[in-house]
C-alpha cells in the first residue's frame, strides 16, 4: 500500500502566518483620480466647458516664470474652462483622518483644514479670485468650503445659499482667521453637489 503523500498548502497572501499585509496606497495616483472625479462633476454640473487638472497640481505656476494670463489659468489645482471663473480651487482627497463634523471640537483637525484653506487663499489672492477647498473622503460625497464674506456684490448670493426657503438643506458656518488674508475670516461647509445645484451659474463667475 502506497504511503499517502500529505501536501500542506499555505495562503499566498499571508504565507501561513494569518496576518495580512495591507496593500500600500499610492497617494499620488489616488490624488490624481480624486482630481479627475471633481473635474468631471464640475464639468457636468456647471455646463461651462471641461475642467482640467493643473500641471503639478498648482505648483507649476509658483516654480515657473509665467505671463499674468497663464498664471490666471494655473491658479489652484483645477483649470476652469472660462477666464472669469470666480474661484481658485484647492482640491484635497484621501485625508480619511479628518472628520468634517468634528472640526469645531478637535484643534488638530481644524489646524489641518486651516492649512488647506490657507493654500487656497494664496492662489486666490494672487489671481484676484475667491478661495475654495473641495475635500473628498472615501465613499463620501465631496464637500466644498468657501468664505462667507465674498464682497458686497456677492452678499445676496450667499444669503440665498443659506436661506431656509431656497437654500441648501444642510451647511455649517465657522470662524477661522488667516493672518495674511483677513478678508476671509468666516467659512461655510456644504456638499459640493448642493453648492452646484442651489447656486445660479452667475455665482461661479466674476
Would you kindly provide a written description of the structure presented here, covering whatever features stand out?
The protein is of the alpha+beta class and 206 residues long. The protein has one domain (27-204): Trna Endonuclease, Chain: A, domain 1. It is built from six helices and seven strands; from the N terminus they run αβααββαββαββα. The chain has helices at residues 27-46, 60-63, 68-73, 107-126, 155-161, 192-198; strands at residues 52-53, 78-79, 87-93, 130-136, 143-147, 172-175, 186-191. The strands form two sheets. A five-stranded mixed β-sheet has the order 3-4-5-7-6. A two-stranded antiparallel ribbon has the order 1-2. Strand 3 (87-93), helix 4 (107-126) and strand 4 (130-136) form a beta-alpha-beta unit. The radius of gyration is 22 Å and the shape is globular.
Compose a concise summary of this entry.
With 206 residues, the chain is of the alpha+beta class.
Mind telling me the CATH class? Alpha Beta
What's the number of domains?
1
Estimate the global geometry from the Cα principal axes.
globular
Largest sheet: 5 strands, mixed
Distance between the termini: 90 Å
Arithmetic mean of pLDDT: 79
Helix content: 25-40%
Q: Architecture in CATH?
A: 3-Layer(aba) Sandwich
Number of helices: 6
Q: β content, as a range?
A: 15-25%
Count all strands and give the number. Answer: 7
SSE order, as H and E? HEHHEEHEEHEEH
Amino acid at each position: 500500500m502506497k504511503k499517502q503523500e500529505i501536501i500542506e498548502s499555505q495562503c499566498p497572501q499571508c504565507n501561513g502566518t494569518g496576518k495580512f499585509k495591507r496593500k500600500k496606497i499610492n497617494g499620488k495616483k489616488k490624488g490624481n483620480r480624486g482630481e479627475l472625479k471633481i473635474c468631471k462633476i464640475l464639468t457636468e454640473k456647471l455646463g461651462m466647458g471641461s475642467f482640467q487638472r493643473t500641471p503639478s497640481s498648482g505648483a507649476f505656476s509658483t516654480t515657473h516664470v509665467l505671463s499674468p494670463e497663464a498664471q490666471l489659468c494655473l491658479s489652484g489645482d483645477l483649470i476652469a474652462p472660462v477666464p472669469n471663473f470666480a474661484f481658485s480651487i484647492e482640491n484635497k482627497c484621501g485625508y480619511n483622518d479628518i472628520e468634517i463634523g468634528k472640526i469645531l471640537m478637535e484643534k488638530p483637525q481644524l489646524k489641518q483644514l486651516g492649512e488647506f484653506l490657507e493654500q487656497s487663499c494664496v492662489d486666490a489672492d494672487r489671481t484676484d479670485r475667491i478661495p475654495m477647498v473641495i475635500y473628498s473622503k472615501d465613499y463620501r460625497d465631496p464637500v466644498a468650503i468657501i468664505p462667507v464674506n465674498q464682497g458686497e456684490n456677492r452678499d445676496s448670493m450667499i444669503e440665498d445659499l443659506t436661506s431656509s426657503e431656497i437654500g441648501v438643506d444642510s451647511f455649517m458656518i465657522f470662524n477661522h482667521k488667516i493672518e495674511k488674508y483677513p478678508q476671509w475670516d468666516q467659512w461655510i461647509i456644504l456638499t459640493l453637489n448642493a453648492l452646484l445645484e442651489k447656486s445660479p451659474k452667475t455665482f461661479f463667475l466674476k
